[in-house]
Design goal:
Blueprint lengths: L5 E2 L15 H13 L5 E3 L11 H15 L5 E5 L4 H14 L3 E4 L9 H13 L5 E5 L1 H4 L5 H10 L3 E6 L5 H10 L4 E4 L5 H7 L3 E2 L8 H12 L3 H18 L4 H11 L16 H16 L7
Parallel strand pairs: 1-8, 2-3, 3-4, 4-5, 5-6, 6-7, 7-8
Helix pairs in contact: 1-2, 2-3, 3-4, 6-7, 8-9, 9-10, 10-12, 11-12
């Protein structure tokens, strides 16, 4: 049974120099994340550059992750597409491959009213019996799933089990809890509100910074969930400059730069994204190197 708990990295998609998918690296990366305490792998999300992946490539990413981690942790597939039919097809294929959960995104490019958006989400949820997480990131997709919308979906669909809340407004977590109690699990969807989000009732973290710092990310989440406030805020203070890189508009490039700095991956991204250069690159590297030079010691 799918448990929406702990630190579940939204993984970056590893590319070779020719920008083809690097399955060998990805398999090693996801196992490293699990070795360091992560409780799930979320593939084909925004951080995974899913909009630049073909349908077949998304399937290859999922197959690679599932084969690599086996039954150690669940693999969750992002379900995003241009059309409802494409999203439904991806949900069905991800289920056949053995994904334990589906993270449902709004349709790419088309932001619409609740009538149409509810129909899209309902079609994807109803396509399989796989437990689903709704992904709410209005800045990225132009669609804001309000707490009332989420309550409607939860009432209609028993296997909608969780919400990834990425509005950066921790009050949304409180509002969902107020409407639904424990009916849905809530996951923090933006790294730099992790401690506040857990305090408001989140039980998991779909994390970006964990791609480069899984051990620290797991420690921070555990401190927060166990209400060990002094340890949590000490570690949070150190991680915050890195977490804010993950919240930058070029968060994919920033996260891959962090990974490269710790020896896990490279900075290859698919256009229209381009690798960081010049002052932007140097400023980002300075932030990363300064943080890593003062890496705290802690007990996990």
């Amino acid at each position: 049974m799918m448990k929406w708990q702990g630190v579940m990295p939204a993984i970056t998609t590893g590319f070779k120099q020719d920008l083809s998918f690097d399955a060998e690296y990805t398999a090693k990366h996801v196992n490293w994340l699990v070795d360091n305490g992560c409780t799930g792998i979320v593939a084909n999300g925004t951080l995974g550059e899913a909009t630049s992946l073909s349908f077949d490539e998304k399937i290859q990413v999922l197959q690679t992750c599932i084969t690599a981690v086996g039954d150690r942790v669940p693999v969750i597939s992002g379900i995003g597409a241009m059309t409802t039919a494409q999203a439904v097809a991806l949900a069905k294929k991800a289920t056949l491959l053995g994904c334990s959960g589906l993270m449902i995104l709004p349709p790419y490019q088309y932001s619409t009213d609740w009538y149409e958006m509810k129909a899209h989400v309902a079609a994807v949820i109803e396509a399989t019996d796989t437990p689903c997480m709704l992904y709410n990131d209005p800045d990225a997709y132009g669609t804001d799933f309000l707490p009332e919308h989420i309550a409607e979906l939860a009432a209609d669909h028993s296997h909608l089990c969780a919400v990834k809340e990425a509005t950066t407004d921790v009050r949304r977590i409180t509002a969902i809890r107020s409407l639904l109690g424990e009916r849905l699990s809530i996951s923090v969807g933006m790294d730099d509100i992790l401690v506040e989000g857990v305090a408001a009732g989140a039980t998991s973290w779909v994390a970006g910074t964990a791609n480069a710092l899984p051990k620290e990310s797991v420690a921070l989440f555990n401190y927060a969930i166990q209400k060990e406030d002094d340890q949590a805020f000490r570690l949070y203070k150190w991680m915050m400059p890195l977490m804010r890189l993950n919240a930058d508009p070029k968060f994919v490039q920033m996260t891959k730069l962090m990974q490269q700095a710790v020896g896990w991956g490279n900075t290859f991204v698919r256009p229209p994204r381009l690798e960081l250069t010049g002052l932007e690159l140097q400023t980002s590297l300075d932030i990363i190197k300064t943080a890593l030079s003062d890496r705290p010691e802690f007990i996990t």
